[in-house]
Amino acid sequence: MGRVEAIARSIVQLIVKGAKKRSRSPIAWIIALISTIFSFYQLPLHRHRPKVFQDLRERHWGLDEDDYVASFRTEDGQKAEDALQPMGDMGFSGSTFYSTVDKKFLIKSVPRHHEHTFFRDELLDAYAAHVAAHPKSLLVRICDFLASSGLAIGHQLGMAPSHHIIMTNILYGSDEAKRMGMPEWEQWDLKPTSYFYPERDIAEGRLTSEATKSQLADEFHDKLLLTQEQAEDFWRSLDEDTRMLAHYNAVDYSLFLVRIQPNAPAQQVTDPSSSSSPPPAVEAITPRDPPAVPPAPPSWRTGVPSVGGKYVYRAAVLDFFWAKHKMQPRIMTFLVNAYNKLIAHHGPMSITTTPDEYRERFLKLCHEIVEIRDEQESEEV
């Protein structure tokens, strides 16, 4: 079994079967312990703070436990790892990324120590309280946090990621939309681009491959066409979310934006409706099952129609695990400050700036991509 499959198997087995109980037989216990120690990729995992996440799933997001587990089950005759589809792997020390077969959930590893310890020890309770109290929060909905005990060799050598988050998939429904003949859904991972990015800014990017530079933040060269009410609701949620993140010293988070063209058949754009109400095709691609709801549609999780109905937008705030006070970020801040003082002044990186300054630029970006239109206005093709 390969590395990607072994990691997937460990995740699925935990969600479907739960943590294994230790046998009372001393021999069986010793065999199990040896097997655990010599695990390279299929690390033994446990759910961290399971009651917290179960409360979010069931009480606040309306997700029944059986329905949640069903996304990780396989058909008869299939292997456990078949329940997850790999979406990316960055090598033995990097991240892994999976989706459930039904596309409702994404599983992303959090391999860096300073990130998973920040979420586990400092942010988790604040995150849970915030999303519970703010149903319209754009912070991605994290449904589970899985961790390894650290006994396995694979954990100690970094051969497999030791921590994973299970989160909702904002692209849920894109496969069905494609089968309906709709164009590919457009997506952007947005951060303020005015910061110093060594891959882009040193020697005009000639020292770095295009593949590496492609991993930098996207730019959205258009506008979200929203009513005044939609825009204010969008900005209010972002203001509340980023205030909480800044309080806990988080920086470098991003706005994941999805734009859907529900009325246009593939390879062809039809005239948009002049009505501000969602066109019939919007209903077909709007998820109405938990945890996308509550709140009821329209929301930034299910889809907000643009003025005129040409587009439907979804958005979520992702990757808020980088905290300025942790050791690795402090080292990076020192190195960037030294570079700016001794070599060339480029200013801070998005991972070395202050939380308040990053929040200010992030909110400025989120205001700049919005254009407010009257509800009766139609969009131009």
From TrEMBL:
GO biological process terms on file: phosphatidylinositol phosphate biosynthetic process
Residue ranges, annotated region (Disordered): 266-301
Regions of compositional bias (Pro residues) in chain numbering: 288-298
One Pfam family hit: PIP5K
GO cellular component, one term: plasma membrane
Span of domain PIPK: 1-370
Top-level taxon: Eukaryota
Name used for this protein in its record: PIPK domain-containing protein
Organism: Coniella lustricola
